[in-house]
């Protein structure tokens, strides 16, 4: 085969990775919060410019994570329509209405324990209360403009509760992309950046990496409860599950390339930026494996790199 002839090589070239394949992660912090964090974060002031820059480069979706400075046992600030999450969603939709806004729907960045659940008076997991709060968070996020909400507690029943609450509030068109999360050490940069390190040291509903069948079971339950699509994380450590699920479960699959993947697979450059070539290769694997989109902290840097090359 004459692959040394460039016209033949480019004739055979695959589609490769494009900016549209990517969704950008925003980890929000308040404008006056200057505490150093392991992961890149974004202030409210920076949101409009950031979504417009992404849109100009062809990145058409963002996923917003935002915690609360004031924490309590009930994660109450996560429900506030003037809280950081609400303001970030509003600012992004206002600056670029065509850019899709996804959220995280969880309590770990709003309570004082860092757990993805709320406790009752005895300190035990309160499934009912947590589910109610997650549903109320989702409605608030939809009220201020979120297109897709992201229940991330992995709590049984939470996706159904979110769907019912959204429907009852008139948000039938708002999508649900629950997180299907494997236990991993790759979340530390995120947890430290967001103040979401679980006091107990564990996230009991997350998938044990040695039990891949559990992931299929949970994914099925999520779809039965009303998930429109499923986020898988960490992205690269769950590629096998992505391929399995693609055959078994008829919903779009969206790997989330988490903090540890960003920190470990990029290199600091002399100009202060990061070399993202390793991530481009990794996300090409994910695309080949069947990912509908890839959620990543490097979407802007990758879009720039793709345009330059
Ligand atoms: N609330 C669950 C959640 N939301 C975001 C991440 C990790 C994201 C990342 O590392 O980039 C996690 C996992 C966890 O804390 O156990
Ligand atoms: Zn959580």
UniProtKB/TrEMBL annotation:
Keywords: Heme biosynthesis, Lyase, Porphyrin biosynthesis. It is an enzyme of class 4 (lyase). It catalyses: 2 5-aminolevulinate = porphobilinogen + 2 H2O + H(+). Its EC number is 4.2.1.24. InterPro entries: ALAD (IPR001731), Aldolase_TIM (IPR013785). Pfam families: ALAD (PF00490). Pathway: Porphyrin-containing compound metabolism; protoporphyrin-IX biosynthesis; coproporphyrinogen-III from 5-aminolevulinate: step 1/4. Catalyzes an early step in the biosynthesis of tetrapyrroles. Binds two molecules of 5-aminolevulinate per subunit, each at a distinct site, and catalyzes their condensation to form porphobilinogen. PANTHER family: DELTA-AMINOLEVULINIC ACID DEHYDRATASE. Belongs to the ALAD family. This is Delta-aminolevulinic acid dehydratase. The lineage of its organism: Bacteria, Bacillati, Actinomycetota, Actinomycetes, Kitasatosporales.
């Amino acid at each position: 085969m004459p692959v040394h002839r460039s016209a033949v090589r480019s004739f055979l070239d695959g589609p490769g990775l494009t900016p549209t394949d990517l969704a950008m992660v925003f980890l929000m912090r308040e404008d006056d919060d200057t505490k150093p964090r392991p992961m890149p974060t974004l202030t409210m002031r920076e949101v409009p410019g950031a979504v417009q820059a992404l849109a100009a480069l062809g990145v058409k979706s963002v996923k917003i994570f935002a915690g609360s400075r004031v924490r309590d046992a009930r994660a109450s600030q996560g429900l506030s329509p003037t809280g950081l999450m609400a303001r970030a969603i509003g600012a992004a939709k206002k600056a670029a209405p065509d850019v899709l806004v996804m959220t995280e729907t969880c309590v770990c960045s709003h309570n004082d324990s860092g757990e993805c659940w709320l406790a009752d008076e005895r300190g035990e997991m309160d499934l009912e209360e947590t589910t109610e709060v997650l549903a109320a968070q989702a409605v608030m996020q939809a009220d201020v403009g979120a297109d897709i909400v992201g229940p991330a507690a992995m709590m049984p029943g939470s996706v159904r509760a979110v769907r019912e609450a959204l429907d009852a509030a008139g948000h039938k068109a708002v999508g649900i992309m629950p997180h299907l999360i494997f236990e991993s050490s790759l979340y530390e940069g995120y947890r430290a950046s967001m103040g979401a390190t679980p006091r107990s040291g564990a996230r009991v509903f997350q998938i044990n990496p040695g039990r891949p069948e559990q992931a299929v079971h949970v994914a099925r339950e999520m779809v039965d409860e009303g998930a429109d699509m499923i986020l898988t994380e960490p992205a690269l450590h769950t590629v096998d599950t992505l391929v399995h699920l693609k055959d078994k479960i008829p919903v779009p699959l969206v790997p989330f390339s988490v903090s540890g993947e960003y920190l470990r697979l990029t290199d600091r450059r002399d100009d202060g930026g990061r070399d993202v070539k390793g991530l481009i290769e990794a996300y090409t694997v994910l695309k080949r494996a069947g990912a509908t989109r890839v959620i990543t902290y490097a979407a802007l840097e990758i879009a720039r790199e793709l345009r330059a090359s």
